[in-house]
Amino acid sequence: MIREEYNRWLENATLDPDLIRELKEIKDDEAAINDAFYTELSFGTAGLRGVIGAGTNRMNIYTVGKATQGLSQYVKSVSDKPSVAIAYDSRIKSEDFARASAEILAANGVKVYIYKELMPTPMLSYAVRYFKCNSGIVITASHNPAKYNGYKAYGPDGCQMGPEAADYVLSIMNKIDVFKDIKRISFDEGISSGLIEYIGEEVIESYLDEVEKCRVNKNLDLSGVKIVYTPLNGTGNKPVRKIFSRIGATNVTVVKEQEMPDGNFPTAPYPNPEIRQAFECAFKTAKTAQPDLIIATDPDADRTGIAIKAGDDFKLLSGNDVGALLLEYILKCRKALGTLPERPFAVKTIVSTEICKRIAEDYGCELKEVLTGFKFIGEQIGILEENGEQERYVFGFEESYGYLAGPYVRDKDAVVASMLICEMAAYYKEKNLNLLQVLDGIYEKYGYFLCEQKSFVCEGQSGMKKIADTMERIRQNPPKTVAGKCVSVFKDFKVSVATDNSTGKTEKIELPKSNVLGFYLEDGSLLIIRPSGTEPKIKLYVCAVGESKDSADLMRESIIKDGTVILDL
After folding, report:
1. Domains (range + CATH), the chain
2. What are the φ and ψ backbone dihedral angles of 143, each rounded to 5 degrees?
3. pTM of the model
4. pLDDT digits 0-9 by tens, 265-315
């Protein structure tokens, strides 16, 4: 069966010379053929993501085409005048996949708005809302290594596509033959017919206007804060530098080796602002520039990482650290300036630091917890908007370096995050404080909450089965203690049930069902286990509480150790 499908591709996959060459090269490699064809890339609320190459289990012009044909039929089912916005990042084949998607949509009579050049993911969300589209597509694999690419689909609200729409698209995809059932016209024909339209500069400027509105201390002089910025060869270079220029952050040095788009990511094999290696070129630049902080955005500019000057070195802050810093900064300054809404509203995911609960409580801010995935934060903004209360929204974040202030988009936004981080650093610099000192002050005031995420890679067909089996084994026999502490509450988000282990009583979890297990310990610490929705990984999320930094750190290490034993991979 696998060999038959391979032979079919060898005969019919003629649109991309790279695929023709690869299919010929693996002709006698049964393992390579099996890996490329044993399954199809799964389409869901996160769209598609996979290794670039030939096969049903790869990102290529045919698997992208199949998804787009399904999406075309979906938007036509919900609108008499369907439209879709498209953006793409710097990855290998991104522009090819974006243009192919536009050609297929246009061939199906769907109006397409596409950016002329690579743009960040949040600017796709903005375009969907700006043009009132039925859907959106951004071609990106976020912070994955260079061999990956992806296809994210969005709903009319600017959030990533919901489960019902994704299921509809998938049901269409399951009926499509990639070589017979995908309609196409040329890109030039789409342009000339008016079915494909480039997104103009006025949309980009409108987006930047909305970002700038999110400033907190609008009269603050930002010229004194020194920044080294790296877009990691991705999409952030132009919009982030434009917003810095707009707000008067003029003391910015860009990392030359990582300035221009390059999908091979030659100086950062893992272009992920969560890891230190991605900052190595920035550290070299910093030796001359001597900045107060380094800011890095990932290839599609929806995640932001920072490193703060600490003596002769730089210390990377976690997504939880930056989320806590920004939440406290926004609430404190807006309250002092009289711009904080009467009933402020913030959002975090269930795997993000618990310290935010204490910060929000201190400022009378309602803090909503949602499942992992920024679309759930976007949904909360949408609910506020439906009730005419969008001005209540002040901030949302997830521990994986995603932040958003303002309701103008419905996805995490590294452009607004970079702006606010710059402003926050300048605000505290005027008070002779760096962000490490500010963070220490937050811990001293609200308690020591030390968080960590640990991933375990399980690649291939056997890896996916191992992840599924592991989750089910733990679900059926959950531990009663972790790190020497009793598990007070066990939450199984797949069945939406929380069990109080001391009483045996259960409560319904008012969140969508998700394959996540949560262990809430008697001291306030927690361990959450979940498979990644976009990568072949199973993840541990730890938030340890202690009376001091040292005691919290010991607890964090102990939870990770026990969590690793529980996984038993």
Report:
1. 2-199 (3.40.120.10), 208-317 (3.40.120.10), 320-446 (3.40.120.10), 448-567 (3.30.310.50)
2. -105, 15
3. 0.94
4. 999 999 999 999 999 999 999 999 999 999 999 999 999 999 999 988 999
